[in-house]
Automatic annotation (TrEMBL):
InterPro entries: SCO1/SenC, Thioredoxin-like_sf, Thioredoxin_domain
Keyword Mitochondrion in record: no
GO biological process entries: mitochondrial respiratory chain complex IV assembly
Organism: Melanocharis versteri
Cellular compartment(s): Mitochondrion inner membrane
One matching Pfam family: SCO1-SenC
Similarity field: Belongs to the SCO1/2 family.
Domain (Thioredoxin): residue spans on this chain: 11-185
Name of the protein: SCO2 protein
One of the record's GO molecular function terms: metal ion binding
PROSITE patterns for this protein: THIOREDOXIN_2
Membrane topology: Single-pass membrane protein
Predominant cellular place of this UniProt entry's protein: mitochondrion
Gene that produces this protein: Sco2
Sections of the chain in a coiled coil: none
């Protein structure tokens, strides 16, 4: 019975991974720059588990909350030295205001290994499109300020760069960490 149960679970995991690959979510590459100005692509993060969030530095509430949750999840995973490290990434959806310096200032309040990425509007659009992230800049106010509406999801990529899962606002840091651990265990 245990053998059959294990075999069925393995088949379900295999089918889920096949279905995720069929979505072609996050399978494209991206060409962006980090806060030090270095060119970065998805290939730079192969070999590591990645938690990736798209947002912007002028976000009044959602992005800071999600980055705090992402940071907390990474810290929870770091408590177990047997687990491989997770690389947290933040990709801006507002390259007009989020240059490397703005990202560096903003991200210093979160996890110390959180890497911020920006680029030209075209590069950022391409990165968002690879993950099917919705992005729409709102109208400008009298001061020229605006809010960017975007998908609120944190993506998990395995060491092969394959999309494994995504986490919405309703998931806690503990739930995200537990899910990531589960994916690591079955990798």
């Amino acid at each position: 019975w245990l053998y059959l149960r294990h075999r069925k679970e393995r088949q379900q995991r295999s089918r889920r991974l096949r279905d995720l690959r069929a979505l072609a979510l996050g399978q494209g590459d991206f060409q962006l720059r980090d806060t030090a100005g270095a060119a970065r692509s998805k290939a730079d993060f192969l070999g590591r588990w990645v938690l990736l969030y798209f947002g912007f530095t002028h976000c009044p509430d959602v992005c800071p909350e999600e980055l705090e949750k992402l940071s907390r999840a990474v810290e929870l995973l770091e408590r177990d030295p047997a687990l491989p490290p997770v690389q947290p990434l933040f990709v801006t959806v507002d390259p007009e205001r989020d240059d490397a310096a703005a990202l560096a200032r903003y991200l210093r309040d979160f996890h110390p290994r959180l890497v911020g990425l920006t680029g030209t509007p075209e590069q950022v659009r391409a990165a968002a499109a690879a993950f099917r992230v919705y992005v729409s800049a709102g109208p400008r106010d009298a001061d020229g300020d605006y809010v960017v509406d975007h998908s609120v999801l944190t993506f998990l990529l395995d060491p092969d760069g394959i999309f494994r899962d995504c986490y919405g606002r309703s998931r806690t840091a503990e739930e995200v960490a537990r899910s990531v651990r589960g994916h690591m265990d079955t990798y």
